[in-house]
């Protein structure tokens, strides 16, 4: 088997694993009970699934400029997804959309007396 055949086989495996993780994320978003669990299901497997698909594309393309672009897409996805998810979770907590009975630890519940988080846009 040539190097191209091995790379194509590895690319197919990456595509299948990435698609499987994306499907698991979609099922988690539909089936999990509360907002924070759904956000977790949407972020973790989806990010890893995207990285696997990007690896499959890189193995299939085999060109330096395409691999560089795919690497940038993966890095920016891994940098922005946690920040966006954190901000979405914080906003939903402020709006009262989080079920307190399902939380194991609530780090934001220990706010000093008289302290209220700002609401809305600045």
Automatic annotation (TrEMBL):
Q: What is this protein called?
A: Monovalent cation/H(+) antiporter subunit G
Q: Could you tell me which PANTHER family the record lists for this protein? A: ANTIPORTER SUBUNIT MNHG2-RELATED
Q: Which family does it belong to?
A: Belongs to the CPA3 antiporters (TC 2.A.63) subunit G family.
Which GO molecular function terms does the record list?
sodium:proton antiporter activity
What domain of life does the native source organism fall in? Bacteria
What NCBIfam families does this protein map onto? CPA3_mnhG_phaG, PRK12674.1-2
Q: Where are the transmembrane segments?
A: 6-30
Q: Which UniProt keywords apply?
A: Membrane, Transmembrane, Transmembrane helix
């Amino acid at each position: 088997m040539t190097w191209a055949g091995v790379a194509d086989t590895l690319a197919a495996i990456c595509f299948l694993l990435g698609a499987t993780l994306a499907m698991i994320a979609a099922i988690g978003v539909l089936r999990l009970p509360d907002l924070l669990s759904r956000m977790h299901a949407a972020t973790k497997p989806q990010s890893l699934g995207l990285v696997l698909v990007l690896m499959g594309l890189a193995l299939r393309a085999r060109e330096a400029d395409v691999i560089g672009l795919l690497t940038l897409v993966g890095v920016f996805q891994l940098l922005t997804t946690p920040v966006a998810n954190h901000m979405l979770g914080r906003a939903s907590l402020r709006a009262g959309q989080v079920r307190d009975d399902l939380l194991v630890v609530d780090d934001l519940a220990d706010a000093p007396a008289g302290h209220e988080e700002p609401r809305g846009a600045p």
